[in-house]
């Protein structure tokens, strides 16, 4: 029972492995994928109240991990549902694509439960390598040929970040003689002021900074976002980031004793991420690239919650990353529907969307205003709570700079809204949307608004989950 | 919480806020343009009538917040849904609710495209605007203050004129950039006040002087851009010119007042010491705005731009009245906020009516129409006279009180404002002369039809208020008197406490 979600995902992966051996029809693959994702979500919800240790204490099942598993499974289900045509993926490798996606999912689900350095490493690599393979699986039919380049870039930067992380882990092991997080937590306060411990901690964090795309580990973002298929990007933009935040919470709560040095570095990373992301996003023409840069900025915001080293700050970070995933899923839902052949979308391709697909236009607008941090959407509430948490810790300068960034960001989000609502369709045809995509987008819009207006219950949930690991 | 007189029985204010929002939901489903017009007119009219029922129950003798409602909202952060009305806000709420039905009427034939969407934006606007004036929780205030940008952005960006994209983005960016530091100020106040966002709790506290100065700067940026005060006014002509008539009216009559309302509600009570220190600069900026607005209005060929720049001048008078910090000045300023809403709103409606006929806002294409549209020129004539503060009209009372307050404060300052009044006469009479008579070679205007009954009904109430406030302003002043006296008492009490503390 403790391991049920993982086993389900594994089983689902095997199912798709069997499918790759035969020659299943399109419809079979589609339906299998959706059904499997629903079952995974169901098992995750079923196991929410489980607690216990597995594998000699390397793997812990608690409320914290279970909630993240639900979130990951839910986001994956949404990706499966709106991307179920897999228009951007090569025809003959669609079953394999699902196989790798599920393997990556397995890695992420295991990651949030891992409480031992090697288990963390293995889970992280499992999830990463599957995605490395998914990126080049994009079809070349739309005339895009740089998916291979994107895949290689993703791999190289990823491996480098992992290298840093392993190096840091070896230091920690050398200093403390243990690889379990509990053991490290006991010993770290004694080592707090040793430069070696600080360096090691930062190196470990860098592995997850890479996943979350925080400056200076962000270099892969624009190319991978642009080069990967729309469905793959949707997955990369939403799901691994949630797991990364979970792990960053586990790890920064260890680093909280290390004082000024780590704090200052996190602050610098946060500010640079925001400025770099927002300023670069201003000049983008490609929608996915723009969202990539905006993702870097949002990662900087999330860091704002982590560097408070307080329960409320962590809870705000969790709230924010969930909100961020929702907004991104809404954006990518629209991208996947509008890009009829799975091509990349320029911002100008959205012109007149309000006529071509009113519901999609509404969804995109809500998601973008929310990303920009305009009330009453989830993005505003999240940003507000993060700023509030940081100001409680007296980071006035940081909060002011973050607030200024909100003002910078509004411009590029607005220019997309302008295209969808305030311009004519310029001869672009109507967008075909199915019932599924429409209802899914309305659900996302509702959730974005409801979570923004009534955040209490979710924050309370996140706080009670985080209490179990602090 | 003793500043609140809790509402018993029917939650009138909440109904006012949420009725338009609820009304807009239906328009997402029913997409018929004709139904959308009637439905929105009905909803805004009901809201207007409901808001009038506030009047008999409003207690003029107290400075407390009346009809207050208090519900917990986000408990973990101590954010509450708390709303209430006092003498400063009640007139602004009535202005908002009463003007909205006429905005709908003015858009009846003006808006032909995407009518349901337009009406949805109008209704959401109304919810946000009423909410801003009644919110007593700073987060609630900020949420509505920012959320308002979205429908307004669409009003300008979708239904606007040729340069709508530029105007709408400039409007959005300017306002958002201004209010972003307000958010930081709000959070700072929250931490300094024992984790409470309740606005009356934040007032009259002895925050350190530097903190007050920084808070004042944050307030000033947000509110001065909204007013707009010189030199933060550049978004206004662009937005006014490109917005559809209803959008211009909402902007001029209500949105601009939020800035001055913000000064009264937040800047004065929360940062009194900083206000005293920085007052001279704000006053001279107001004078600069008055003169600058007048001079630029004199040079405009575009009627909407002319009125937009005249707004800069009129709002300069309002900020002048607020920051002289005496009873005449502040009461005159509040009255002038209402007057400007009435007069400028009506003028924008008049320009909209011309535009619907000639499809041009140029003064040159609307010259010499007095002969063919006698009713129209009579009305626009009266509103122009009101705008230049002709005795007997509403603006005269407001401007007179403000100048009286300014003279009591500082004679050179008041003298410096006088040219503004002369300039107002100059640019308004110039516009009137051109519209009514023009020159010797007017374009052929004989095809123009005079106002129809819908348009006359739209303008009639404005006319009524122009003369009512002009000839008998007492009921309006009585509504705000207790609140203003209380504000000034507290303000001067605070100053005395500071000086007394300074002596030891």
UniProtKB/TrEMBL annotation, chain B:
<dbReference type="GO" id="GO:0012505">
    <property type="term" value="C:endomembrane system"/>
</dbReference>
<dbReference type="GO" id="GO:0003954">
    <property type="term" value="F:NADH dehydrogenase activity"/>
</dbReference>
<keyword id="KW-0812">Transmembrane</keyword>
<dbReference type="GO" id="GO:0015990">
    <property type="term" value="P:electron transport coupled proton transport"/>
</dbReference>
<feature type="transmembrane region" description="Helical">
    <location>
        <begin position="142"/>
        <end position="159"/>
    </location>
</feature>
<feature type="domain" description="NADH:ubiquinone oxidoreductase chain 4 N-terminal">
    <location>
        <begin position="66"/>
        <end position="130"/>
    </location>
</feature>
<dbReference type="InterPro" id="IPR003918">
    <property type="entry name" value="NADH_UbQ_OxRdtase"/>
</dbReference>
<feature type="transmembrane region" description="Helical">
    <location>
        <begin position="38"/>
        <end position="58"/>
    </location>
</feature>
<dbReference type="GO" id="GO:0008137">
    <property type="term" value="F:NADH dehydrogenase (ubiquinone) activity"/>
</dbReference>
<feature type="transmembrane region" description="Helical">
    <location>
        <begin position="211"/>
        <end position="229"/>
    </location>
</feature>
<feature type="transmembrane region" description="Helical">
    <location>
        <begin position="117"/>
        <end position="136"/>
    </location>
</feature>
<feature type="transmembrane region" description="Helical">
    <location>
        <begin position="281"/>
        <end position="299"/>
    </location>
</feature>
<comment type="similarity">
    <text>Belongs to the complex I subunit 4 family.</text>
</comment>
<dbReference type="GO" id="GO:0016020">
    <property type="term" value="C:membrane"/>
</dbReference>
<feature type="transmembrane region" description="Helical">
    <location>
        <begin position="413"/>
        <end position="432"/>
    </location>
</feature>
<dbReference type="InterPro" id="IPR001750">
    <property type="entry name" value="ND/Mrp_TM"/>
</dbReference>
<keyword id="KW-0472">Membrane</keyword>
<protein>
    <submittedName>
        <fullName>NADH-quinone oxidoreductase subunit M</fullName>
    </submittedName>
</protein>
<feature type="transmembrane region" description="Helical">
    <location>
        <begin position="171"/>
        <end position="191"/>
    </location>
</feature>
<dbReference type="InterPro" id="IPR000260">
    <property type="entry name" value="NADH4_N"/>
</dbReference>
<feature type="transmembrane region" description="Helical">
    <location>
        <begin position="375"/>
        <end position="393"/>
    </location>
</feature>
<keyword id="KW-1133">Transmembrane helix</keyword>
<feature type="domain" description="NADH:quinone oxidoreductase/Mrp antiporter transmembrane">
    <location>
        <begin position="135"/>
        <end position="417"/>
    </location>
</feature>
<feature type="transmembrane region" description="Helical">
    <location>
        <begin position="241"/>
        <end position="261"/>
    </location>
</feature>
<feature type="transmembrane region" description="Helical">
    <location>
        <begin position="306"/>
        <end position="327"/>
    </location>
</feature>
<dbReference type="Pfam" id="PF00361">
    <property type="entry name" value="Proton_antipo_M"/>
</dbReference>
<keyword id="KW-1278">Translocase</keyword>
<feature type="transmembrane region" description="Helical">
    <location>
        <begin position="453"/>
        <end position="471"/>
    </location>
</feature>
<dbReference type="InterPro" id="IPR010227">
    <property type="entry name" value="NADH_Q_OxRdtase_chainM/4"/>
</dbReference>
<keyword id="KW-0520">NAD</keyword>
<dbReference type="Pfam" id="PF01059">
    <property type="entry name" value="Oxidored_q5_N"/>
</dbReference>
<dbReference type="GO" id="GO:0042773">
    <property type="term" value="P:ATP synthesis coupled electron transport"/>
</dbReference>
<feature type="transmembrane region" description="Helical">
    <location>
        <begin position="333"/>
        <end position="355"/>
    </location>
</feature>
<dbReference type="GO" id="GO:0048039">
    <property type="term" value="F:ubiquinone binding"/>
</dbReference>
<feature type="transmembrane region" description="Helical">
    <location>
        <begin position="78"/>
        <end position="105"/>
    </location>
</feature>
<feature type="transmembrane region" description="Helical">
    <location>
        <begin position="12"/>
        <end position="31"/>
    </location>
</feature>
């Amino acid at each position: 029972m403790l391991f049920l979600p993982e086993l389900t995902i594994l089983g689902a992966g095997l199912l798709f492995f069997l499918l790759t051996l035969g020659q299943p029809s399109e419809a079979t693959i589609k339906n299998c994928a959706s059904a499997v994702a629903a079952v995974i979500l169901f098992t995750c919800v079923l196991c929410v109240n489980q607690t216990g240790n597995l594998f000699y204490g390397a793997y812990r099942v608690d409320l914290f991990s279970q909630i993240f598993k639900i979130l990951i499974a839910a986001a994956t289900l949404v990706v499966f549902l709106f991307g179920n045509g897999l228009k951007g993926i090569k025809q003959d490798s669609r079953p394999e694509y699902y196989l790798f996606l599920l393997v990556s999912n397995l890695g992420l689900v295991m990651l949030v439960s891992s409480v031992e350095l090697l288990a963390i490493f293995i889970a992280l690599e499992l999830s990463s390598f599957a995605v490395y393979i998914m990126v080049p699986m994009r079809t070349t039919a739309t005339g895009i040929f740089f998916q291979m380049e994107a895949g290689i870039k993703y791999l190289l930067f990823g491996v480098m970040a992992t290298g840093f992380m392993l190096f840091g882990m070896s230091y920690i092991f050398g200093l403390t003689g243990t690889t379990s997080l509990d053991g490290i937590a006991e010993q770290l306060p004694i080592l707090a002021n040793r430069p070696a411990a600080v360096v090691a901690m930062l190196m470990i964090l860098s592995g997850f900074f890479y996943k979350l795309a925080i400056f200076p580990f962000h270099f892969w973002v624009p190319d991978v976002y642009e080069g990967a298929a729309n469905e793959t990007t949707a997955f990369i933009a939403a799901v691994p980031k949630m797991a990364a935040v979970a792990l960053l919470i586990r790890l920064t709560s260890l680093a909280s004793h290390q004082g000024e040095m780590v704090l200052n570095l996190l602050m610098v990373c946060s500010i640079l991420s925001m400025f770099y992301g927002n300023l670069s996003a201003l000049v983008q023409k490609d929608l996915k690239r723009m969202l990539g840069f905006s993702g870097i900025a949002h990662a900087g915001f999330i860091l704002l919650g982590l560097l408070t080293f307080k329960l409320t700050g962590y809870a705000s970070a969790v709230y924010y990353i969930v909100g961020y995933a929702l907004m991104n899923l809404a954006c990518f839902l629209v991208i996947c529907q509008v890009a009829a052949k799975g091509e990349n979308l320029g911002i100008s391709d959205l012109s007149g969307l309000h006529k071509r697909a009113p519901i999609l236009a509404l969804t995109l607008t809500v998601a973008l205003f929310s990303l920009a941090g305009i009330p009453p959407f989830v993005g505003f509430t999240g940003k507000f709570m993060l700023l509030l948490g940081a100001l409680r810790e007296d980071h006035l300068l940081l909060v002011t700079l973050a607030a200024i960034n909100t003002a910078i960001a509004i411009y590029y989000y607005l220019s997309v809204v302008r295209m969808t609502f305030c311009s004519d369709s310029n001869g672009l045809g109507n967008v075909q949307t199915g019932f599924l995509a429409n209802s899914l987008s309305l659900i996302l819009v509702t959730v974005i608004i409801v979570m923004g207006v009534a955040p209490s219950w979710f924050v309370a949930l996140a706080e009670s989950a985080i209490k179990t690991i602090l | 919480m003793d500043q609140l007189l809790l509402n018993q029985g029917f939650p009138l204010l909440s109904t006012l806020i949420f009725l338009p929002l609820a009304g807009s939901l239906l328009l997402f489903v029913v997409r018929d343009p004709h139904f959308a017009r009637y439905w929105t007119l009905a909803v805004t009219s009901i809201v207007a009538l409901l808001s009038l029922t506030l009047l008999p129950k409003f207690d003029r003798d107290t400075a407390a917040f009346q009809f207050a409602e208090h519900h917990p909202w986000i408990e973990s952060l101590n954010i509450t849904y708390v709303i209430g009305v006092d003498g400063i806000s009640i007139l602004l709420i009535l202005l908002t609710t009463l003007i909205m039905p006429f905005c709908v009427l003015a858009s009846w034939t003006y808006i032909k495209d995407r009518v349901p969407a337009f009406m949805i934006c109008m209704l959401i606007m109304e919810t946000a605007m009423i909410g801003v004036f009644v919110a007593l929780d700073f987060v609630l205030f900020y949420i509505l203050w920012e959320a308002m940008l979205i429908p307004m952005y669409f009003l300008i960006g979708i239904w606007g004129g040729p340069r709508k994209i530029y105007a709408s983005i400039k409007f959005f960016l300017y306002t958002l950039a201004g209010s972003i530091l307000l958010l930081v100020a709000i959070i700072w106040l929250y931490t300094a006040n024992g984790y409470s966002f309740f606005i009356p709790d934040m007032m009259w506290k002895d925050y350190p002087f530097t903190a007050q100065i920084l808070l004042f700067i944050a307030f000033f940026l947000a509110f001065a851009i909204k007013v707009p005060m010189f030199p933060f006014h550049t978004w206004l002509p662009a937005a006014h010119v490109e917005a559809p008539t209803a959008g211009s009216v909402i902007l001029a009559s209500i949105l601009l007042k939020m800035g001055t309302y913000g000064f009264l509600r937040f800047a004065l009570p929360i940062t009194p010491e900083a206000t005293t220190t920085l007052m001279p600069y704000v006053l001279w900026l107001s004078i600069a705005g008055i003169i600058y607005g007048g001079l630029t209005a004199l040079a405009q060929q575009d009627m909407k731009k002319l009125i937009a720049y005249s707004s800069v001048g009129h709002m300069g008078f309002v900020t002048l009245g607020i920051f002289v910090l005496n009873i005449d000045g502040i009461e005159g300023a509040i009255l002038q906020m209402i007057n400007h809403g009435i007069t400028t709103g009506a003028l924008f409606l008049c320009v909209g009516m011309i535009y619907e006929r000639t499809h041009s806002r140029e003064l040159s294409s609307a010259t010499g129409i007095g002969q063919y549209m006698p009713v129209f020129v009579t009305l626009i004539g009266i509103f122009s006279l009101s705008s230049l503060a002709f005795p007997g009209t509403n603006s005269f009372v407001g401007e007179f009180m403000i100048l009286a307050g300014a003279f009591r404060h500082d004679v050179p300052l008041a003298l410096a404002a006088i040219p503004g009044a002369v300039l107002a006469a100059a640019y308004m009479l110039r516009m009137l002369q051109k519209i009514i008579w023009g020159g010797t070679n007017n374009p052929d205007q004989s095809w123009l039809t005079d106002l129809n009954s819908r348009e006359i009904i739209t303008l009639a109430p404005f006319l009524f208020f122009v003369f009512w406030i002009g000839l008998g302003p007492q009921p309006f002043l009585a509504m705000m008197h207790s609140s203003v006296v209380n504000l000034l008492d507290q303000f001067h009490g605070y100053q005395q406490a500071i000086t007394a503390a300074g002596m030891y």
